[in-house]
Amino acid sequence: MRPVQIVLDAQDTQRLATFWAAALADRGYRLPTPPDGAPDWPTWLRAQGVPEEQWGAGFALDNDDPAQPRLYLQRVPEGKTTKNRVHLDLLAGGGAGVPLPEQEQRVDAAVERLVAAGAVLVERRTELGVHWAVLLDPEGNEFCA
Fold first, then answer.
1. CB 18 within 8 A of CB 73
2. Contacts of residue 12, Cβ cutoff 8 Å, sequence gap at least 6
3. Nearest by Cα to 11 from 55, 85, 74
4. Which residue, 21, 51, 71, 136, has fewest beta-carbon neighbours within 10 Å?
């Protein structure tokens, strides 16, 4: 059993799952492969009798480490309208125990990788010896690196 599941609302679950799988690949997250040797998800879903309008209603990312939380994306009809009350922090800089110049290099590298995957950089910040960046995922959800 996973310790906790983190659920993200999305309008396009597959697009957001693809982004988060890339963003968290270094933590062992990946897109799931279809079961039963199916060549792709549409083939498997069709074989299970799932109506096409239900495809993408939910999408979980795989991770072989049971200590990692499960990430689940659920389709919702509405778009994001306000600031997140909870957000993911990727802790890219390593925290106050890491020298500030090294934190900045780590965060810069993470920002470059995340922007290439579809994130938008909002700002970089340094407070109390910790450096991080605030970004938006492809659907506008705030997160930190």
1. no
2. 56, 138, 139
3. 74
4. 51
